[in-house]
Design a protein that fits this description.
- The structure is a single chain.
- The chain has helices at about 5-30, 50-60, 65-70, 75-110, 115-140, 150-175, 185-210, 230-235, 245-270, 275-295, 300-325, 330.
- It contains twelve helices and no strands.
- Helix content is about 70%, strand content about 0%.
- The chain is flat, with a radius of gyration of 22 Å.
- By secondary structure, the protein is mostly helical.
- The two termini are about 25 Å apart.
- Keywords: Cell membrane, Heme biosynthesis, Iron, Membrane, Metal-binding, Oxidoreductase, Transmembrane, Transmembrane helix.
- It is a multi-pass membrane protein.
Amino acid sequence: MSSLQSAIWLGVCCGMVMLMVLVGGMTRLKDAGLSITEWKPITGVIPPIGDEAWAREKEKYQKTPEYLYVNQGISLSDFKRIYMVEYLHRLLGRALGMVFFIPLAYWGLRRQINKRLAIRLGIIAILGALQGVVGWLMVKSGLVDVPHVSHYRLAAHLFLTILIFSLLWYSFLESMGVGIIKNVATTGRVAIGLTVVLTCTQMVFGALVAGLDAGLIYNTFPLMDGAVIPQQILSGQLINANMLGDVMVVQFLHRLLGTVVLFLALVMPLFLRHKAAVWLSACMLVQFLLGVATLVHSVQVHLASMHQVFGFVVLAIEVYISRLVFERSRTA
Protein backbone atom coordinates (compact mmCIF):
# COMPACT_ATOMS: atom_id res chain seq x y z
CA MET A 1 0.00 0.00 0.00
CA SER A 2 1.53 3.28 -1.09
CA SER A 3 1.48 6.41 1.07
CA LEU A 4 -0.89 8.04 -1.43
CA GLN A 5 -3.34 5.13 -1.28
CA SER A 6 -3.21 5.17 2.50
CA ALA A 7 -3.73 8.93 2.64
CA ILE A 8 -6.73 8.84 0.29
CA TRP A 9 -8.33 5.96 2.18
CA LEU A 10 -7.81 7.45 5.63
CA GLY A 11 -8.78 10.93 4.44
CA VAL A 12 -12.10 9.60 3.12
CA CYS A 13 -12.69 7.83 6.45
CA CYS A 14 -12.02 11.06 8.35
CA GLY A 15 -14.46 12.94 6.12
CA MET A 16 -17.11 10.29 6.67
CA VAL A 17 -16.66 10.49 10.44
CA MET A 18 -17.20 14.26 10.26
CA LEU A 19 -20.33 13.68 8.19
CA MET A 20 -21.51 11.14 10.77
CA VAL A 21 -21.01 13.75 13.50
CA LEU A 22 -23.12 16.24 11.54
CA VAL A 23 -25.92 13.79 10.78
CA GLY A 24 -25.82 12.36 14.31
CA GLY A 25 -26.19 15.83 15.75
CA MET A 26 -29.08 16.60 13.41
CA THR A 27 -30.70 13.30 14.40
CA ARG A 28 -30.62 14.28 18.06
CA LEU A 29 -31.66 17.90 17.48
CA LYS A 30 -34.64 16.81 15.39
CA ASP A 31 -35.64 14.22 18.04
CA ALA A 32 -35.36 11.41 15.50
CA GLY A 33 -32.96 9.07 17.28
CA LEU A 34 -35.61 6.86 18.89
CA SER A 35 -37.73 6.33 15.78
CA ILE A 36 -36.09 2.99 14.86
CA THR A 37 -36.72 0.59 17.72
CA GLU A 38 -34.59 -2.37 16.61
CA TRP A 39 -30.93 -2.98 15.86
CA LYS A 40 -30.45 -5.02 12.70
CA PRO A 41 -26.84 -4.52 11.54
CA ILE A 42 -27.35 -6.49 8.30
CA THR A 43 -31.02 -6.44 7.27
CA GLY A 44 -31.50 -2.92 8.64
CA VAL A 45 -29.83 -1.54 5.51
CA ILE A 46 -33.16 -1.95 3.70
CA PRO A 47 -35.74 0.71 4.68
CA PRO A 48 -39.46 -0.01 4.97
CA ILE A 49 -40.99 -0.52 1.52
CA GLY A 50 -44.74 -0.17 1.07
CA ASP A 51 -47.58 0.94 3.32
CA GLU A 52 -47.68 -2.31 5.31
CA ALA A 53 -43.98 -2.13 6.19
CA TRP A 54 -44.31 1.49 7.31
CA ALA A 55 -47.38 0.62 9.37
CA ARG A 56 -45.42 -2.12 11.17
CA GLU A 57 -42.56 0.25 11.96
CA LYS A 58 -44.95 2.86 13.30
CA GLU A 59 -46.70 0.24 15.41
CA LYS A 60 -43.37 -0.62 17.05
CA TYR A 61 -42.71 3.08 17.66
CA GLN A 62 -46.13 3.50 19.29
CA LYS A 63 -44.96 1.26 22.13
CA THR A 64 -42.06 3.55 23.05
CA PRO A 65 -42.05 6.18 25.82
CA GLU A 66 -41.30 8.88 23.24
CA TYR A 67 -44.55 8.16 21.41
CA LEU A 68 -46.58 7.80 24.61
CA TYR A 69 -45.29 10.97 26.29
CA VAL A 70 -44.08 13.22 23.47
CA ASN A 71 -45.32 12.29 20.00
CA GLN A 72 -48.66 10.65 20.66
CA GLY A 73 -50.84 10.88 17.57
CA ILE A 74 -47.93 11.59 15.21
CA SER A 75 -48.97 11.26 11.57
CA LEU A 76 -47.44 8.63 9.32
CA SER A 77 -45.80 11.31 7.17
CA ASP A 78 -44.15 12.92 10.21
CA PHE A 79 -43.06 9.50 11.45
CA LYS A 80 -41.48 8.75 8.07
CA ARG A 81 -39.58 12.03 8.29
CA ILE A 82 -37.94 11.31 11.65
CA TYR A 83 -37.45 7.65 10.75
CA MET A 84 -35.49 8.51 7.61
CA VAL A 85 -33.22 10.90 9.53
CA GLU A 86 -32.22 8.09 11.91
CA TYR A 87 -32.06 5.63 9.00
CA LEU A 88 -29.59 7.92 7.19
CA HIS A 89 -27.45 8.11 10.32
CA ARG A 90 -27.31 4.32 10.62
CA LEU A 91 -26.75 3.88 6.87
CA LEU A 92 -23.76 6.22 7.01
CA GLY A 93 -22.38 4.18 9.90
CA ARG A 94 -22.62 1.00 7.84
CA ALA A 95 -21.05 2.73 4.83
CA LEU A 96 -18.18 4.00 6.97
CA GLY A 97 -17.64 0.49 8.29
CA MET A 98 -17.39 -0.90 4.77
CA VAL A 99 -15.09 1.89 3.57
CA PHE A 100 -12.79 1.19 6.51
CA PHE A 101 -12.90 -2.60 6.86
CA ILE A 102 -12.81 -3.72 3.20
CA PRO A 103 -9.53 -1.94 2.31
CA LEU A 104 -8.13 -2.93 5.71
CA ALA A 105 -8.83 -6.60 5.01
CA TYR A 106 -7.51 -6.36 1.44
CA TRP A 107 -4.21 -4.71 2.33
CA GLY A 108 -3.90 -6.64 5.57
CA LEU A 109 -4.16 -10.04 3.88
CA ARG A 110 -1.53 -8.92 1.37
CA ARG A 111 0.70 -7.81 4.26
CA GLN A 112 1.00 -4.34 2.77
CA ILE A 113 0.46 -2.43 6.01
CA ASN A 114 3.45 -1.65 8.19
CA LYS A 115 3.36 -2.89 11.77
CA ARG A 116 3.02 0.51 13.39
CA LEU A 117 0.04 1.50 11.26
CA ALA A 118 -1.48 -1.98 11.52
CA ILE A 119 -1.58 -1.75 15.32
CA ARG A 120 -3.29 1.63 15.16
CA LEU A 121 -5.79 0.42 12.56
CA GLY A 122 -6.52 -2.63 14.71
CA ILE A 123 -7.36 -0.35 17.62
CA ILE A 124 -9.62 1.71 15.35
CA ALA A 125 -11.38 -1.47 14.19
CA ILE A 126 -12.08 -2.52 17.78
CA LEU A 127 -13.31 0.97 18.68
CA GLY A 128 -15.52 1.02 15.58
CA ALA A 129 -17.18 -2.27 16.50
CA LEU A 130 -17.60 -1.06 20.09
CA GLN A 131 -19.11 2.17 18.78
CA GLY A 132 -21.91 0.27 17.09
CA VAL A 133 -22.73 -1.55 20.33
CA VAL A 134 -22.59 1.62 22.44
CA GLY A 135 -24.74 3.45 19.89
CA TRP A 136 -27.45 0.82 20.18
CA LEU A 137 -27.24 0.71 23.98
CA MET A 138 -27.65 4.48 23.93
CA VAL A 139 -30.79 4.24 21.79
CA LYS A 140 -32.11 1.34 23.89
CA SER A 141 -31.88 3.48 27.03
CA GLY A 142 -34.62 5.68 25.58
CA LEU A 143 -36.95 2.85 24.60
CA VAL A 144 -37.81 1.49 28.05
CA ASP A 145 -39.04 3.97 30.65
CA VAL A 146 -38.11 7.52 29.62
CA PRO A 147 -38.46 9.32 26.25
CA HIS A 148 -34.80 10.25 26.00
CA VAL A 149 -31.44 8.51 25.88
CA SER A 150 -29.02 8.30 28.79
CA HIS A 151 -26.77 11.36 28.72
CA TYR A 152 -23.93 9.19 30.02
CA ARG A 153 -24.28 6.79 27.10
CA LEU A 154 -24.50 9.73 24.71
CA ALA A 155 -21.23 11.04 26.16
CA ALA A 156 -19.62 7.60 25.80
CA HIS A 157 -20.83 7.47 22.18
CA LEU A 158 -19.20 10.83 21.43
CA PHE A 159 -16.01 9.93 23.31
CA LEU A 160 -15.54 6.87 21.11
CA THR A 161 -16.06 9.09 18.06
CA ILE A 162 -13.35 11.42 19.35
CA LEU A 163 -10.91 8.52 19.75
CA ILE A 164 -11.72 7.04 16.33
CA PHE A 165 -11.42 10.38 14.54
CA SER A 166 -8.18 11.30 16.30
CA LEU A 167 -6.51 7.99 15.42
CA LEU A 168 -7.72 8.14 11.81
CA TRP A 169 -6.61 11.74 11.41
CA TYR A 170 -3.21 11.09 12.99
CA SER A 171 -2.71 8.14 10.64
CA PHE A 172 -3.72 10.32 7.68
CA LEU A 173 -1.18 12.97 8.68
CA GLU A 174 1.48 10.28 8.98
CA SER A 175 0.64 8.95 5.50
CA MET A 176 0.89 12.49 4.14
CA GLY A 177 4.38 12.73 5.58
CA VAL A 178 3.60 15.69 7.82
CA GLY A 179 6.89 16.66 9.40
CA ILE A 180 7.90 17.59 12.91
CA ILE A 181 9.11 20.64 14.78
CA LYS A 182 12.50 20.22 16.37
CA ASN A 183 13.62 21.73 19.65
CA VAL A 184 10.17 22.42 21.07
CA ALA A 185 10.43 23.55 24.68
CA THR A 186 8.90 21.39 27.39
CA THR A 187 6.41 24.17 28.16
CA GLY A 188 5.16 24.01 24.56
CA ARG A 189 4.62 20.27 24.73
CA VAL A 190 2.87 20.56 28.08
CA ALA A 191 0.65 23.35 26.73
CA ILE A 192 -0.56 21.41 23.69
CA GLY A 193 -0.92 18.19 25.67
CA LEU A 194 -3.05 19.92 28.29
CA THR A 195 -5.10 21.66 25.60
CA VAL A 196 -5.87 18.36 23.84
CA VAL A 197 -6.93 16.66 27.08
CA LEU A 198 -9.14 19.55 28.15
CA THR A 199 -10.64 19.92 24.67
CA CYS A 200 -11.67 16.26 24.64
CA THR A 201 -13.08 16.62 28.15
CA GLN A 202 -14.96 19.73 27.05
CA MET A 203 -16.45 17.87 24.07
CA VAL A 204 -17.65 15.09 26.37
CA PHE A 205 -19.26 17.68 28.64
CA GLY A 206 -20.93 19.08 25.54
CA ALA A 207 -22.53 15.66 25.05
CA LEU A 208 -23.70 15.68 28.68
CA VAL A 209 -25.22 19.13 28.13
CA ALA A 210 -26.96 17.89 24.98
CA GLY A 211 -28.24 14.72 26.63
CA LEU A 212 -29.74 16.68 29.52
CA ASP A 213 -31.07 19.47 27.26
CA ALA A 214 -29.12 21.75 29.58
CA GLY A 215 -28.62 24.28 26.79
CA LEU A 216 -32.32 25.16 26.90
CA ILE A 217 -32.01 26.94 30.25
CA TYR A 218 -29.76 29.69 31.66
CA ASN A 219 -29.61 31.25 28.18
CA THR A 220 -27.46 34.23 29.12
CA PHE A 221 -23.72 34.80 28.91
CA PRO A 222 -21.40 35.50 30.68
CA LEU A 223 -23.86 35.53 33.58
CA MET A 224 -25.60 32.30 34.55
CA ASP A 225 -28.69 32.61 36.73
CA GLY A 226 -27.69 36.22 37.36
CA ALA A 227 -24.08 35.55 38.38
CA VAL A 228 -20.77 34.48 36.89
CA ILE A 229 -20.79 31.56 39.33
CA PRO A 230 -24.33 30.62 40.43
CA GLN A 231 -24.97 30.74 44.17
CA GLN A 232 -26.05 27.09 44.26
CA ILE A 233 -22.63 26.07 42.98
CA LEU A 234 -20.71 28.49 45.22
CA SER A 235 -22.53 27.12 48.24
CA GLY A 236 -21.54 23.58 47.30
CA GLN A 237 -25.09 22.27 47.64
CA LEU A 238 -25.04 20.79 44.11
CA ILE A 239 -21.65 19.13 44.48
CA ASN A 240 -22.43 15.48 45.17
CA ALA A 241 -22.19 12.02 43.63
CA ASN A 242 -25.00 12.79 41.19
CA MET A 243 -23.81 16.24 40.13
CA LEU A 244 -23.19 15.17 36.51
CA GLY A 245 -26.92 14.62 36.26
CA ASP A 246 -27.69 18.19 37.33
CA VAL A 247 -28.29 20.60 34.45
CA MET A 248 -26.84 23.61 36.26
CA VAL A 249 -23.60 21.86 37.23
CA VAL A 250 -23.08 20.34 33.79
CA GLN A 251 -23.74 23.59 31.95
CA PHE A 252 -21.51 25.55 34.33
CA LEU A 253 -18.63 23.09 33.90
CA HIS A 254 -19.08 23.25 30.12
CA ARG A 255 -18.84 27.05 30.30
CA LEU A 256 -15.82 26.89 32.60
CA LEU A 257 -13.91 24.35 30.52
CA GLY A 258 -14.70 26.28 27.36
CA THR A 259 -13.20 29.44 28.84
CA VAL A 260 -10.07 27.62 30.05
CA VAL A 261 -9.52 25.91 26.70
CA LEU A 262 -10.03 29.21 24.87
CA PHE A 263 -7.38 30.85 27.06
CA LEU A 264 -4.91 28.03 26.41
CA ALA A 265 -5.50 28.24 22.67
CA LEU A 266 -5.09 32.02 22.59
CA VAL A 267 -1.71 31.85 24.34
CA MET A 268 -0.52 28.83 22.33
CA PRO A 269 1.43 31.00 19.81
CA LEU A 270 3.59 32.16 22.72
CA PHE A 271 4.74 28.58 23.32
CA LEU A 272 4.78 27.33 19.74
CA ARG A 273 6.16 29.45 16.91
CA HIS A 274 4.17 27.83 14.13
CA LYS A 275 1.23 28.94 11.98
CA ALA A 276 -0.79 25.97 13.25
CA ALA A 277 -0.82 27.57 16.70
CA VAL A 278 -2.32 30.73 15.20
CA TRP A 279 -4.93 28.66 13.37
CA LEU A 280 -5.79 26.93 16.64
CA SER A 281 -6.27 30.27 18.38
CA ALA A 282 -8.54 31.57 15.63
CA CYS A 283 -10.62 28.40 15.32
CA MET A 284 -10.99 28.01 19.08
CA LEU A 285 -12.30 31.57 19.28
CA VAL A 286 -14.83 30.80 16.54
CA GLN A 287 -15.86 27.63 18.38
CA PHE A 288 -16.27 29.54 21.64
CA LEU A 289 -18.46 32.16 19.96
CA LEU A 290 -20.52 29.43 18.29
CA GLY A 291 -21.06 27.90 21.71
CA VAL A 292 -22.21 31.20 23.17
CA ALA A 293 -24.52 31.81 20.20
CA THR A 294 -25.97 28.31 20.54
CA LEU A 295 -26.70 28.97 24.21
CA VAL A 296 -28.24 32.44 23.95
CA HIS A 297 -30.40 31.35 20.99
CA SER A 298 -31.72 28.31 22.89
CA VAL A 299 -29.98 25.63 20.79
CA GLN A 300 -31.16 26.51 17.31
CA VAL A 301 -30.50 23.54 15.03
CA HIS A 302 -28.11 25.25 12.61
CA LEU A 303 -26.02 26.83 15.37
CA ALA A 304 -25.85 23.66 17.46
CA SER A 305 -24.87 21.61 14.40
CA MET A 306 -22.07 24.01 13.48
CA HIS A 307 -20.87 24.05 17.08
CA GLN A 308 -20.66 20.26 17.22
CA VAL A 309 -18.90 19.83 13.88
CA PHE A 310 -16.51 22.73 14.43
CA GLY A 311 -15.41 21.08 17.65
CA PHE A 312 -13.91 18.34 15.49
CA VAL A 313 -12.21 20.95 13.30
CA VAL A 314 -10.51 22.28 16.42
CA LEU A 315 -9.62 18.74 17.48
CA ALA A 316 -8.09 18.08 14.04
CA ILE A 317 -5.82 21.11 14.41
CA GLU A 318 -4.77 19.97 17.88
CA VAL A 319 -3.95 16.47 16.64
CA TYR A 320 -1.94 18.04 13.82
CA ILE A 321 0.04 20.14 16.29
CA SER A 322 0.50 17.09 18.52
CA ARG A 323 2.14 15.23 15.65
CA LEU A 324 4.42 18.20 14.96
CA VAL A 325 5.45 18.34 18.60
CA PHE A 326 5.41 14.82 20.04
CA GLU A 327 6.87 12.91 17.10
CA ARG A 328 10.13 14.66 17.87
CA SER A 329 10.96 12.34 20.77
CA ARG A 330 10.96 9.27 18.50
CA THR A 331 12.45 10.64 15.27
CA ALA A 332 14.96 13.19 16.53
